[in-house]
Amino acid sequence: GAKLLDNAKDLGAAKLVVAQIDAEAGALRDIVTDLTGKADNAVVLLAAVNDGKVSLCAGVSKPLTAKVKAGDLVKFAAEQVGGKGGGRPDLAQAGGTDAAKLPEVLNGVVDWVNSKLV
User: Fold this and answer.
1) Which of 14, 32, 97, 110 has its CA 20 to 30 A from that of 68?
2) What are phi and psi of 13, to 5 degrees?
């Protein structure tokens, strides 16, 4: 988890962590919670593919939830991989079925988050 935070993209108001990792869906939630707990300005979207299914988990540090909501972020990503999901402003999970679209979705997260931080 700490390594992911070291490689975060600095967007000024937020540090963005977007990655596809090798993990079970349940582990994604623990890692996201850990990352958002370590920083006041973290926006995290982690994805994993298991048995052809996409698991997504988004987290947002509490001070940032007024601008960026984890539920909205995970919904944005899930809709593009043929799924749906949601959750709280600080933590949300989703699933999808189109793993082939995942790299493109992850690349689009930077612009989506930037648009919310304005």
Assistant:
1) 97
2) -75, -15
**Domain made up of 2-117: CATH architecture:** Roll (3.10)
Residue 1 has pLDDT above 80, yes or no: no
This prediction has a pTM of: 0.96
- Other CB atoms within a 10 A radius of the CB of residue 64 amount to 24
pLDDT band at 2 (very low <50, low <70, confident <90, very high): confident
Mean pLDDT for 76-97 is 96
Nearest-angstrom CA–CA distance, 41 and 22: 25
Which segments of 41-101 are extended strands (E)?
A: 42-50, 53-60, 84-87, 91-96
Give the domain ranges of the chain. 2-117
Tell me the H-state helices in 65-101. Answer: 70-80
